[in-house]
Write a structure and sequence with these properties.
The protein is mostly helical. The protein has one domain. It has 10 helices and no strands. The longest helix has 20 residues. 37% of the residues are buried.
């Protein structure tokens, strides 16, 4: 039972803004705390769209490197932001989400966090169903440049998203693209 003497409930987005400011003021632990806050509030649209997605690429890379497991929770939550249509997503929101996820995906590959890369690819392709042409160019470039283990991870995810394969079909005939990516896009083994 809530009493009148209880303080107001802390709004996660407000706390996130405080942590972001602290990080930018030099607090070395604030980014980690911010990702933990987001992981504890996976359905908080304002926290994700007003704070998390506004992180600079450098801030994202640092947070991912510090705590890849929590970054993975945050990435998974991003696919749920639109579940059930509870919030109104603008096209610009989708573009910002995908660009943020691409930064995480590049970092996950660089630090060889393959599960995180898989979750990033899955969430990127989930949001790509909005068919945003501008950001699709960025996704296409990312897909085309994958090789080694990363290409295998991304190819497996592409197979789970047949609805977006047509967005990247021109990569199928590009011999510079890893064979596994091309096969996943064409629907062949």
């Amino acid at each position: 039972m809530t009493s009148e003497l209880d303080g107001p409930l802390e709004v996660a987005a407000n706390r996130g803004e405080q942590l972001l400011k602290a990080a930018r003021d030099g607090d070395q632990d604030a980014l980690r705390q911010l990702f933990h806050l987001a992981a504890r509030h996976p359905a908080d649209f304002d926290l994700y769209m007003d704070v998390i997605v506004s992180l600079s690429a450098d801030e994202v890379r640092r947070a991912v490197s510090t705590d890849p497991a929590t970054a993975r929770e945050v990435v998974r939550a991003m696919a749920e932001l639109y579940s059930g249509g509870q919030v109104t997503m603008e096209y610009d929101d989708v573009d910002r989400l995908i660009r943020w996820l691409l930064v995480v995906a590049y970092r996950a590959e660089a630090i060889e966090e393959w599960d995180l890369l898989e979750d990033c690819a899955d969430t990127i392709l989930f949001w790509d169903q909005w068919d945003r042409w501008g950001v699709q160019r960025e996704i296409r470039s990312w897909l085309a440049a994958r090789s080694g283990l990363a290409a295998g991870v991304v190819a497996a995810v592409l197979r789970r998203h047949p609805d977006v394969r047509s967005h990247f079909e021109e990569l199928v005939s590009d011999r510079r693209v890893d064979r596994r990516i091309r096969q996943a896009l064409s629907g062949t083994l």
